[in-house]
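Propose amino acids for all 271 sites.
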């Protein structure tokens, strides 16, 4: 059996290390993964180095060192979930699994370390947690003061998702009256809560809410089809260029940024 062809054909990013923790080989999937993390590595950049060298770029350093030590001490299969941040500021998550390798006599010879990107699954889980918490906080509302708990839930949830927002808001739709009423609630990036209010943007919010699809305005300075820029900037007392509104059962969840094109398509999906 050709070892190199078998190792290279592993579809997951794989690293082979010896008992001293030195890298013996990495496969092409690892190099592609590293490039996706912003590191243009070649095999010769990794082979011969200790596996924990540069690991802080990819995963939490201390946890990874413990992971490798436990693996090489023969403590069985090892698993580590890590969180990182790429150059554009977005959060990513990965699973690392290790399996010892034995020689023909059954002695420990090293280990294989496999990595898997689990960002999509983590974001989906955290998005559901945010929506459940948001729903529960809204159902607990008794008066306008309770809205602060809603906004804290929104801000905490968005930060856990790694959405690079500056200000956030919840626009609640009361469709028990005709015409429906929209109440705007917002919180700045610094945590300043702004109580409920009404505004000219009610028609915009109602339209987005009824359509049931996320509305991403990439650059209000270049295109302000709803003529909402001045209203939003008046609310937050600073320039706003990018805005996302995401409909949910009781209204829309909104985030904004002073930077144009601040949000990725992933942000639109998870917001």
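Proposal:
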């Amino acid at each position: 059996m050709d070892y190199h062809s078998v190792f290279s054909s592993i579809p997951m990013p794989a690293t082979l290390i010896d008992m001293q923790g030195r890298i013996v080989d990495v496969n092409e999937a690892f190099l592609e993964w590293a490039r996706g993390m912003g590191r243009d590595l070649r095999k010769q950049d990794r082979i011969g180095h200790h596996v924990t060298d540069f690991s802080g770029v990819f995963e939490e350093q201390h946890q990874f060192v413990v992971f490798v030590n436990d693996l090489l001490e023969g403590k069985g299969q090892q698993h580590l979930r890590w969180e990182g941040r790429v150059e554009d500021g977005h959060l990513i998550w990965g699973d690392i699994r290790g399996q010892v390798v034995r020689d023909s006599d059954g002695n420990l010879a090293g280990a294989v370390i496999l990595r898997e990107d689990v960002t999509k699954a983590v974001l989906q889980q955290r998005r559901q947690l945010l929506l459940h918490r948001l729903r529960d906080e809204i159902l607990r509302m008794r008066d306008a003061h309770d809205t602060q708990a809603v906004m804290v839930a929104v801000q905490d949830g968005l930060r856990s998702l790694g959405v690079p927002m500056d200000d956030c808001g919840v626009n609640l739709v009361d469709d028990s009256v005709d015409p429906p009423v929209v109440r705007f609630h917002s919180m700045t990036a610094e945590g300043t809560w702004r109580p409920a209010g009404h505004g000219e943007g009610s028609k915009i919010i109602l339209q987005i809410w009824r359509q049931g699809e996320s509305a991403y305005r990439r650059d209000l300075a270049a295109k302000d089809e709803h003529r909402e820029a001045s209203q939003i900037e008046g609310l937050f007392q600073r320039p706003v260029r990018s805005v996302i509104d995401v409909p949910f059962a009781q209204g829309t969840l909104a985030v904004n940024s002073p930077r144009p094109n601040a949000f990725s398509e992933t942000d639109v999906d998870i917001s």
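The chain has two domains: 3-117, 121-270. The radius of gyration is 24 Å.
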